[in-house]
Amino acid sequence: MIPLPRQSPLTVVAGHGLVRLAGELDVATAPAVRDAVRQSLDSHPALLRIDISGVSFCDCSGLRALLWAKAEAARAEAGFHLSGPLQPVVARVLDATATTAHLGLTPRPAERGPRRREQRRRAAASGIARHFGNGVAAQVVAR
Question: To which H or E segment does residue 15 belong?
Answer without folding.
Answer: strand 10-15
